[in-house]
């Protein structure tokens, strides 16, 4: 076990629950550390159910193409914890991370605090002490009581499409979930809203009205779509004719348009040329990522394709299935594992019309709260899919290799995606 892993293991023992939504434990610790959350570069705070990470990836690409230094806070990580904290464009170094974690651990002095709380406090201390032009801050869960929601006056806020997810913590209705996400809105901070279902939009509108905010809305105040293979964006400031996003999938045109709208609405210094460069260079691992080399890729014949995606809910699965459907026809094989907080049926439903040649199921390695491979396979078979449980991703790929000229998609969980990247020898950054 590495020193970082040892520190993180200790910190994970400070609270009996992994998730306990509250800010009451963080605020006293932040105060003892000098309130680093009040000494950050201008913050763009992003909440939502789907597309948060991709939207932040576009924001970062645009701002860096414009020559700006950008901090980023994302979660979860795929292979190394360092991936969660990017300082002025570079992933935090291990020595710097360990020193910050240990200092926060010392100041906390054994008080009860969740893993995500204490690591977010650590991130804030690093962001506060490292010069940068902007901080792109992704919520972990919800908004109102999310650990990131201690920033009192962000430059601006973005809420990506809201759908059902984390119902056990955020509520069972779309309105309850939207109410939690709306908690990041702040009086005096401009807001940009992604495409929303009516039930969620009404909640967001009421929350914005109470705060005196007039958000701009995707599909109404700004539009972005694919036209002749390019991204055409339009808002009240005018039209942009841009190259297509480097990230695969029709939904990435929506994510890119949301990020462009935010840059323009927040008044950030990004010109059309930087938008174009950012679209060409943007990267975001485990989001419809083509795996072209590596130990796992070598298990498949040359005529096969191997794709990796960490989407794990119904909305993400629908976007994923749409992306696959738009590709040239090939036999489709799904290799999937899921956490037991997700329903395999919800994830698989969008793939019915694609008629996969096979579904190979896995138990996610090292995750005690994962669905068992046999259970996922049984539930897939009950839906009419041809599904078989596999002992490992290696065995699943060997089985997929027997299907001629197949398109193989590993999917269902970011935790599975991280395991696959590590086993393949692919660095997420």
TrEMBL record:
It catalyses: 7,8-dihydropteroate + L-glutamate + ATP = 7,8-dihydrofolate + ADP + phosphate + H(+); 10-formyltetrahydrofolyl-(gamma-L-Glu)(n) + L-glutamate + ATP = 10-formyltetrahydrofolyl-(gamma-L-Glu)(n+1) + ADP + phosphate + H(+); (6R)-5,10-methylenetetrahydrofolyl-(gamma-L-Glu)(n) + L-glutamate + ATP = (6R)-5,10-methylenetetrahydrofolyl-(gamma-L-Glu)(n+1) + ADP + phosphate + H(+); (6S)-5,6,7,8-tetrahydrofolyl-(gamma-L-Glu)(n) + L-glutamate + ATP = (6S)-5,6,7,8-tetrahydrofolyl-(gamma-L-Glu)(n+1) + ADP + phosphate + H(+). GO terms for molecular function: ATP binding; dihydrofolate synthase activity; metal ion binding; tetrahydrofolylpolyglutamate synthase activity. The keyword Chloroplast does not apply. Residues 306-413 form the Mur ligase C-terminal domain. Pfam families: Mur_ligase_C, Mur_ligase_M. Its EC number is 6.3.2.12, 6.3.2.17. Belongs to the folylpolyglutamate synthase family. This is Dihydrofolate synthase/folylpolyglutamate synthase. It comes from Devosia elaeis.
